[in-house]
Amino acid sequence: QLQLVESGGGLVQPGGSLRLSCTVSGFSLDDYTIGWFRQGPGQERERVSCSFGSGGGTADTDRVSISRHSAENTVYLQMSSLKPEDTAVYYCAAERKSSNNCLFGYWYRMDYWGKGTLVTVSS
Length: 123
Prior knowledge:
Elements lengths: L2 E5 L2 E3 L5 E8 L6 E8 L6 E6 L5 E3 L4 E6 L4 E6 L8 E9 L15 E2 L3 E5 L2
Parallel strand pairs: 2-11
Antiparallel strand pairs: 1-3, 3-8, 4-5, 4-9, 5-6, 7-8, 9-10, 9-11
């Protein structure tokens, strides 16, 4: 059974950093693109970053970086200089690496989702 589990969310002060983890099971990380998405209060879900199964990745801000560790079946999202507007539930999602939905930001076409982890940026 294919599963994705996010962890690492929590309360952080403005300007702080946080590293989120997406641990997968039931499939080989090398065959999938993993994307991080977020949904703030009253907002539409949006892409944050992608790690492509074929290599490389994207980041929608220079305050985040994504890395995958296949041996750990985990993709990390490192976030820094956090702002209150970064407050959201952060989700990771997977699609076959032959697809391009993460690349184009089509979050609604991603195949598999975790349940999310809440990040709150507040003083």
